[in-house]
Amino acid sequence: MSEFAPRRPEVLDFLLTRRSHPSVTLSAPGPNEAELTAILTAGARVPDHGKLAPWRFVIYRDGQGKAIGERLAQMAEERNGPLDDARREQELTRFTRGAVVIGVISTAAVHPKIPVWEQELSAGAVCLSLVNAASASGYAAQWLSEWYCFDEEASLYLGRREGERFAGFIHIGTPTQPPFERPRPELAGIVTNWQES
């Protein structure tokens, strides 16, 4: 063990037991401004080849979700025809599930030294870091990427600029029920030791 890399068993315990909470099980309250700033700051501390910060955040606050849901429902109906009651309710409540939603936008662009793929991976790392930071702050979170993430008009409405794309939306709030565990991959099926052939 090195003084430059001290053991932090509590962090490892957290990572081995952390769970996402379905956004439909979240409620208020959410993080206050100081907590949200800390979560965003932690979220931005990710591997970032070239120090490009090839991502940015859009915050959707409590009280804005109703208007967003109405617009998304309208767009969904324009694309798919009349919505049944369940689908309409789903669209109307997409941004009212958690107390706050953080949109993570990948700003990856062609660079002479840094591959676009590495920039996109950095945006994915931001999403997981935000989920972990929210969980470590005493809240529950879920990283979602639904149809409006990839829809041209909807993603522009939600704050994407030309040439950008959403990496996902991080829903944060207070859990209303315990998370459920799900099967995890067996290491034997995903780990190999390299050998020169």
Automatic annotation (TrEMBL):
Nitroreductase domain location: 29-173
Pfam families this protein is in? Answer: Nitroreductase
The EC number(s) given in the record are 1.-.-.-
**Keyword Oxidoreductase found:** yes
- Annotated SUPFAM superfamilies: FMN-dependent nitroreductase-like (SSF55469)
Its top-level enzyme class, in one word, is oxidoreductase
InterPro entries, per the entry:
NAD(P)H_nitroreductase (IPR052530), Nitroreductase (IPR029479), Nitroreductase-like (IPR000415), YdjA-like (IPR026021)
UniProtKB keywords: Flavoprotein, FMN, NAD, NADP, Oxidoreductase
The answer to whether UniProt assigns keyword Signal to this entry is no
Q: Gene3D superfamilies this protein is in?
A: NADH Oxidase
Q: Which cofactor does it need?
A: FMN
- Which family is annotated? Belongs to the nitroreductase family.
PANTHER family, per database record:
NAD(P)H NITROREDUCTASE YDJA-RELATED
- The molecule here is called Putative NAD(P)H nitroreductase
The lineage is: Bacteria, Pseudomonadati, Pseudomonadota, Alphaproteobacteria, Hyphomicrobiales
